[in-house]
Write a structure and sequence with these properties.
It comes from Marinobacterium lacunae. This protein is of the alpha/beta class and about 300 residues long. It folds into 2 domains: about 120 residues, 2,3-Dihydroxybiphenyl 1,2-Dioxygenase, domain 1; about 150 residues, 2,3-Dihydroxybiphenyl 1,2-Dioxygenase, domain 1. The chain is about 20% helix and about 35% strand. The chain contains 6 helices and 17 strands. The longest helix is centred in the N-terminal third of the chain and has 14 residues.
Length: about 300
């Protein structure tokens, strides 16, 4: 059982896109994220309608697609300081990012995990409240939502090497728990799903020789009907689809995967397991990976394994 260290939850992800206007048609109009700001660099800030912080997704136009970094929000600036020291002791490369480098966000401590991905810790970000309903006698939902009506940024799945060392980092330094894993017959962990709260996962990693690869960013929907409607919208807009709607074996969420115009994979899903710190990790055998990922098809399609940004 992990001692919690003061990391609360996923806070944001910065995604590289090849064309910002095309990306906005996808993330804002199709997925239904709310545009909240832009900055001098041309980055666009978005959020799911239930999120209280000002943004959870930052889009940056670049020559290559992928993920720049994923940030986790901590309970206080003191926790950020404490964890900065522990990350340095662990051997992570650290960069101090000043307040306001992201608009209305406090200072961030950026570090590189053994998988080659950049993560950030921060404690301060402007809170604008739930979009369209606020915090005082709120209505059930805003009436001007579009597209899939994504509720929140939920997690990322990342591909890279050194899963054991990365698990050690997230457990011992950051206070995450291992919820679910995929093991080979010789005892190698090839996939790991980690949470810092009660969700099925907040971050997941799959073993891959090339470091720093981005598989998908995932967004939460309310119901299976919403996931089916997302599938309809994907077809209506001729959006490139990966697979679904279907169910996962791992986490048991109901899901659909598709691609933004730059080739970054997205997921929208509903449901899924819950986790408490006294739960043992759920283990899947590697030869059952097809069923673990796509419970109905029971086989992995080639795109899911090979298309990364």
């Amino acid at each position: 059982m992990t001692m919690k260290k003061g990391v609360m939850r996923p806070g944001h992800v910065q995604i590289r896109v090849l064309d910002i206007d095309e990306a906005l048609v996808h993330y804002r109009d199709l997925m239904g994220l709310i545009e909240t700001d832009r900055d001098a660099e041309g980055r666009v800030y978005l959020k799911g309608w239930t999120e209280v912080d000002k943004f959870s997704v930052v889009l940056r136009e670049a020559d290559t697609a992928g993920m720049d970094f994923m940030g986790f929000k901590c309970v206080s600036e003191a926790v950020v300081d404490q964890l900065r020291g522990e990350l340095a002791e662990f051997g992570c490369a650290i960069e101090d990012v000043p307040a306001e480098e992201l608009k209305d966000c406090g200072r961030r401590v950026r570090f590189t995990a053994p998988t080659g991905h950049n993560f950030e810790l921060y404690a301060t970000k402007k809170q604008t409240g739930r979009y369209g309903v606020g915090n005082h006698n709120p209505e059930a939902w805003p009436r001007d939502l579009t597209g899939m009506k994504a509720q929140r940024f939920d997690h990322c799945l990342l591909y890279g090497p050194e899963l054991d060392k990365t698990l050690d980092l997230f457990r011992t330094v950051l206070g995450f728990d291992l919820c679910e894993q995929v093991m080979t017959p010789d005892g190698k962990r090839v996939a790991q799903f980690l949470t810092v709260g009660m969700k099925a996962h907040d971050i997941a990693f799959i073993d891959h020789p090339e470091p720093g690869k981005f598989h998908h960013a995932s967004f939460f929907l309310e119901s299976w009907e919403d996931v089916l409607k997302a599938g309809d919208l994907i077809s209506m807009t001729d959006t490139s689809i990966d697979i679904g709607p279907t169910r996962h074996g791992i986490t048991h969420g109901s899901t659909i995967y598709f691609f933004d115009p730059s080739g970054n994979r997205n997921e929208v899903f509903c449901g899924g397991d819950y986790f408490y710190p006294d739960h043992e990790p759920i283990t899947w055998d590697a030869d059952k990976l097809g069923k673990a990922i796509f419970y109905h098809d029971r086989v992995l399609n080639e795109r899911f394994l090979t298309v990364l940004t």
